[in-house]
Amino acid sequence: MILYINNQYHYETENLIRSFFPNDKIEVVRELPAVKQLPFITALTRENGDDIRIEVTVEAEGFFAEDGDTVPADSDDLEKTVERRLAVCLYGLLSRLTGRKQPWGILTGVRPIKLFRRLTEQYGREQAMRYFTDELLVSDEKARLSAVTEEHERKILALSKPLSFSLYISIPFCPSRCSYCSFVSQSIESAGKLIEPYLELLCREIEYTADLAKKCGLILETVYIGGGTPTTLTAPQMSRLLSAIDRSFDMSTCREFTVEAGRPDTIDEDKLGAILSGGADRISINPQTLNDDILTLIGRRHTAAQTLQAFELARKTGFKHINMDLIAGLPAEKAESFTATLDKLCELSPESITVHTLAMKRSSRLTQQGRELDTGGEPPAAAMLRYAEKKLVPEGYHPYYLYRQTRMEGNLENVGWAKQGYDGLYNVYVMDETHTVLGCGAGAVSKLKKPASESLERIFNYKYPYEYINGFDEMLRRKERVEVFYAELAEYISQICL
Prior knowledge:
Number of helices: 18
Structural class: alpha/beta
CATH topology of the domain at 1-99: Double Stranded RNA Binding Domain
Oligomer: single chain
Radius of gyration: 24 Å
Shape: globular
């Protein structure tokens, strides 16, 4: 697919095309040749007196359609208006070509709830919903989901203050690599010898980061240990890690402390005891599915029975908040299998359940093996998500955060569902980019947030464990920027705190 475009709207235009053709390579060309290669799209804008003229064409084998629009040059927020109306024209043509509509309309960003909140603050909730459906072509179903999710998110965001921050710790090791995974993680078979030197340096980085936070007067809100699979660490190693956090940071203000115990085959009583006694009050045990055949297919080395055993062991150990993750749209999984998994999870009654939609990242093994996203009619994942909402709401769960990714099955979404009082705070803060997140470990990114603004500055750690170990001193040097960042904002923060 070739996109011919003569304006600055190529990024959103390309992403919209990709939502209809997720498996196709899209080539962006800035100049129109005399003869265009099929299939192609033109998305052109030109000045027309005092107005901006939009001209969109889609041509494929046996299909030709065009549309256009005119935007007055004195329109409010002219560039965004032109971009949106160009997308609306293109969306209509692509829908005609494919016979499909997108549940999120012309929205291609990962944070639709953040946009919905901004619209709500400006115009009110009802007008925000109308804007979603009428101007952005979002389905009624997704607009309603956005409104309910935003309402719950708002309460969590109100807890954050100008000097609040969250802490992320990366344990980039797994028992094996799942076929859909694109995270920075390495199997313990190939990288197990790195765990000890990695952990030693990670504890040093935690101490260094805590010192920076203290100097800047930051207030710790949440801690999240992710990966990878943190429970690939032994119980003594986990205790060392949690002790480093506890002695380095002021934990008295911490509202939530999560450890990903995502792979049930890495969980035992000693590790759970180490996690709970180390101060973590929330864990995530992730079945993804309770279908053993699908688990084998996607490279998970645990069984459904092990998931259930791990859950019961966590309850016995004393955990009061357990999250469980599912993935809708896994290869070869039918709606009946997904339904059976969710029904069983509801019997267990975890405090929160996150329902992800399969995303086919280019670096995942599934993609490299040639699996493509389904583009024919409604994908199975859509029915799975509808069932999840139908099932979870009567069970006492509500949607508390939502985000989207590129190359998702059906161009759908990921939703966190929780019982009252068990919303995952860290998830909301990260997805909303509410406040600073200080990251420690390989692949972690520190995101420095200027309060009451959209300004965000990133500091990247080295990506892989061996890079992290070899470049540790340089990485700490980069983090000196944290103290400088807050020193530069000192007067600004004091004013907004008044």
